[in-house]
Amino acid sequence: MKRTPLIASLTTVALLGLAGCGGGDEALESDSSGDSGSGDSGSSGEVVVGSANFPENALLAEIYAGALNGAGVEATTKLNIGSREVYIPAIEDASIDILPEYTGVLRDYFLAEEEAGAVGESSDSEGVYSELTDTLPEELTVLDYSEAEDKDAVVVTSETAEEYDLTEIGDLAEVAGDLTLGGAPEWKTRQTGLPGLEEVYGVVFGDFIELDAGGPQSLGALLNGRVDAANLFTTDPNIAAEDLVPLEDPDALFAAQNIVPLLRSEVVDDTVTETLNSVSEALDTETLGALVTQVVIDKEDPQAVAEQFLADNDLA
Fold it and tell me: The pTM is what?
């Protein structure tokens, strides 16, 4: 199987800004593995597994593709496509067939398509998943969600947390006007970004710098002081390695974000369903964090990490 290798060091800021920091259709083309990903991919018996533009998601795509190949389903990958605003249209037009997704943010994406600014009512895993299945268009399907969860977080350095006495996102309300937040471009308009921070917590930052989606740009800008707070992901091993502080979210701006396979309904069959549900069952948050650490901190090859995980869980 031919795959695009994942560029995965979050600790090296010089490592590209990850193509697709929210960019346009070029991201899908430039990150293509070169395998056929045309609109008839499902009918040919081959499925194309895509990923968002950050290491964990690309690693999950490698795991999905490896498991499917092991089950006799021909699968190729298109990694680091870009943000949700780029890859959802790609799966809708059948350029790709399968993606590892996150329940809460995926639910809110489709709710916002129906009504600007709309978000779901539930914040727990089961409730979020139920609302997600109700909002999906007919041409898309989600399978079982995993216990593994990776949530958005507003993260500051330990020095900033101490200086401003920050433990929760709401603690930023009185000081955010003097601070700069860094995050992906789509955070300017996503309800779980700047609009939600203001609506839920009354937090309005003095400036917002467009970076990547929880990747090396965001981490680097936080560490070098270019931004005072950044959107990172809770499974990011750099949070512990760099003694960073993810601020608590007591009002659940960020709902449950369990890993879940998103598929074009046309490619769903018993083999695909059983295979990907088995992957979801084998993953938990601790395991996911350990896998991401191997890629991001230990700089191991993502495909090799995926293959070892599959072998360890009899999924190869």
Answer: 0.81
